[in-house]
Amino acid sequence: MRWHELTTVTKSAMLVAVLGFAIKLTSTGTVSANGTTVCTHMDFAALCLGGLTMALASTGIFKARDLETGRALNLWLCLTAVAVGLLHLVRGLGIVGGPC
After folding, report:
1. Which of 7, 37, 40, 60 is 20 to 30 A from 81, alpha carbon to alpha carbon?
2. pTM score of the predicted model
3. End-to-end CA distance of the chain
4. Are 92 and 86 in contact (CB under 8 A)?
5. Does 26 reside within a domain?
6. Of 91, 61, 66, 88, which Cα lies nearest the Cα of 77?
7. Distance between alpha carbon 51 and the CA centroid of its chain, in Å?
């Protein structure tokens, strides 16, 4: 693997994907009614960075198709970034990894 074989979009998608694990901007709340307590949790940073990761990675996939060298590596990293972006979106909605 050579760093110069990666496109700028692929590098950006990887950077934003990693930042999604480091930056947090959360909101948690509880509501009680008739003896039932409901907890809500959202991570707005994960939502934004997950969407940005998926957009960059999707663009990287289209750019990687035209490459002659480093095509497989760029495609693999972009597909991985799409999966990480999806994880950030689900995590941001509080479906996975929230305190509730």
Report:
1. 40
2. 0.87
3. 41
4. no
5. no
6. 61
7. 6
Which structure tokens are listed for 86?
Answer: 């999806």
Q: How do residues 2-42 score in pLDDT, each as one tens digit?
A: 778 889 999 999 999 999 999 999 999 988 888 888 888 99
Q: Is 70 helix (H, G, I), strand (E, B) or coil?
A: coil
Structural contact between residues 77 and 10, judged by C-beta atoms closer than 8 angstroms: yes
Query: Can you give the residue range of the structural domain that contains 13?
Result: 7-21+41-100
User: How many domains would you assign to the chain?
Assistant: 1
Query: Which residue's structure tokens are 């694990």?
Result: 21
Tokens in use for 91?
A: 């995590």
Contact 99, 62 (CB under 8 A): no
Residue 30 lies in a domain: no
Of how many residues is the chain composed?
A: 100
Q: Flag whether 32 is in a domain.
A: no
